[in-house]
Backbone:
């Protein structure tokens, strides 16, 4: 595998299995024993999407905390896990790698890892049906919960009007959001340096633009229609960065959300019921 600073597209599959050169930052002495054991919630299945590993926007700390406090038989990675739209080496952080290692640790302990690629890691679709290390790659999947309900698991970009009909506009929007987030990081750093409170205006503006572009785009209807065509009970997806869990047209619409701000997941509890987990609520 190339050095992190020299990452190219051929390295992305190996990112899921190999350790980068150089050791992660060592933990302080006694840090493992000084903290009391956190309570662990046992789940049947966890669904997470839109991590965008390797980008400035990814929030590794809440995800690492979530993974340390939840155990599951199966974890679905519902697309846009590693973001191949950006040069990875410049933004790949120690904690990005720690997330990969945490997932692989769970696999070694018996958890099944299944990756459903999205549009930001679409090159993994070339490996449909293969295993990359301890991760199974599937274009999409059908999943049955403990209570007998059956769900289509897919990233969801095939139902995005912008990605389907205006891919250039979708890419431009992603680039613009990245620039806005970089400016947000800069202004927050400057305010912190001068002891001023953080200003959330850029985050607010990004969310408002998302709300405006999606206000009249009933993408959830198109997604639920995919499940209806297969006579399934619902759909579990990601892509839109809008966490949700509700009935739509008589079926369950579950969106995992993202880990670039929402910090949410869909959890199947042991009785088969689904819940939307949010970091800010814990």
Residues:
């Amino acid at each position: 595998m190339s050095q992190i600073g020299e990452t190219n597209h051929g390295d992305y599959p190996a990112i899921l299995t190999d350790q980068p050169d150089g050791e992660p930052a060592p933990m302080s002495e006694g840090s493992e024993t000084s903290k009391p054991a956190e309570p662990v919630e046992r789940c049947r299945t966890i669904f997470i999407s839109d991590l965008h590993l390797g980008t400035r926007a990814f929030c590794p700390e809440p995800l690492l905390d979530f993974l340390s406090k939840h155990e599951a038989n199966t974890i679905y990675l519902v697309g846009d896990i590693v973001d191949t739209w950006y040069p990875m080496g410049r933004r790949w952080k120690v904690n990005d790698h720690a997330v990969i290692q945490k997932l692989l640790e769970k696999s070694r302990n018996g958890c099944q890892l299944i990756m459903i690629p999205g549009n930001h890691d679409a090159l993994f679709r070339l490996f449909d049906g293969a295993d990359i290390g301890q991760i199974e790659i599937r274009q999409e999947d059908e999943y049955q919960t403990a209570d007998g309900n059956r769900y289509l698991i897919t990233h969801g970009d095939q139902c995005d009007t912008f990605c389907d009909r205006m891919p250039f506009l979708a890419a431009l929007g992603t680039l613009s959001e990245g620039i806005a987030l970089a400016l947000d990081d800069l202004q927050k750093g400057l305010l912190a340096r001068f002891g001023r409170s953080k200003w959330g205006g850029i985050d607010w503006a990004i969310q408002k633009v998302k709300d405006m572009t999606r206000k009249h785009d009933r993408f959830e209807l198109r997604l639920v229609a995919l499940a209806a065509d297969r006579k399934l009970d619902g759909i579990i997806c990601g892509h839109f960065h809008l966490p949700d869990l509700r009935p739509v047209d008589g079926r369950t619409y579950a969106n995992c959300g993202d880990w670039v701000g929402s910090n949410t997941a869909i959890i199947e509890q042991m009785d088969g019921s689904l819940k939307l987990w949010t970091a800010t609520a814990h």
Notes: The longest strand covers residues 41-48. The two ends are 38 Å apart (CA to CA). The chain has a mean pLDDT of 81. The helical segments are 12-15, 31-34, 60-68, 94-108, 161-165, 167-193, 201-214, 219-229.
